[in-house]
From TrEMBL:
Subcellular location: Mitochondrion membrane
Family: Belongs to the sideroflexin family.
Keywords for this protein: Amino-acid transport, Membrane, Mitochondrion, Transmembrane, Transmembrane helix, Transport
Ranges in coiled-coil conformation: none
InterPro entries, A to Z: Mtc
Annotated gene: Sfxn5
Name the UniProt record assigns to this protein: SFXN5 protein
An annotated Gene Ontology molecular function: citrate transmembrane transporter activity
PANTHER family given in the database record: SIDEROFLEXIN (PTHR11153), SIDEROFLEXIN-5 (PTHR11153:SF17)
Keyword Membrane: yes
Presence of keyword Cell cycle: no
The organism of origin for this protein: Semnornis frantzii
Source species, domain of life: Eukaryota
């Protein structure tokens, strides 16, 4: 209910350590929270253990569907750089590699957004497809367009062009 509480909740959800929680540890955490809810906690359970269990559940279980979120699409996966982001920053990109890495990054983002969506109201699949296509087309168009503009910029030295090209992925994503 406070800013600090919401901030801590956000930090718990994006904590990359939750990516490595096993299925058995998740079940233990959920069971501990159920025991707490029913007032049947085993003796010796600390508040720190309850907080840890809550953190695990919030990061892995979808709050609306109560389904486990597939590991690469959890919010905690967005806290660390994924392969698509690293690929965007590779030097000497060709047109094909630019298109591929932009597509991969937007596809990953779309999957994360879908997996962590507000599922209290059903949305038609067509809305998700429209959003996905819009994101991919926009990102690829911006990246390719900026690369072409930079290559045609005669006023820049080759070193300046190369430096500017390193920043093209940022406005595209």
């Amino acid at each position: 209910t406070s800013f600090y509480g919401r901030f801590r909740h956000f930090l718990d959800i994006i904590d990359p350590r939750t990516l490595f929680v096993t299925e058995s540890r998740l079940k233990e955490a959920v069971q501990l929270l159920e025991d707490y809810k029913h007032g049947t906690l085993p003796p010796g359970v600390t508040n720190k253990e309850l907080w840890g269990a809550q953190k695990i559940k919030q990061a892995i279980i979808h709050p609306d569907t109560n389904e486990t979120i597939f590991m690469p699409f959890r919010m905690s996966g967005m806290g660390c750089p994924d392969g698509a982001v690293v690929g965007l920053l590779l030097p000497n990109q060709t047109l094909a590699s630019t298109v591929f890495w932009q597509w991969l990054n937007q596809s990953h983002n779309a999957c994360v957004n879908y997996a962590n969506r507000n599922a209290t109201k059903p949305s038609p699949t067509s809305k998700f497809i429209q959003g996905y296509l819009g994101a991919v087309i926009s990102a690829v168009s911006i990246a390719v367009g900026l690369n072409v503009l930079i290559q045609r910029a005669n006023k820049f030295t080759p070193a300046t062009r190369l430096l500017i090209q390193r920043f093209v992925p940022f406005p595209a994503v």
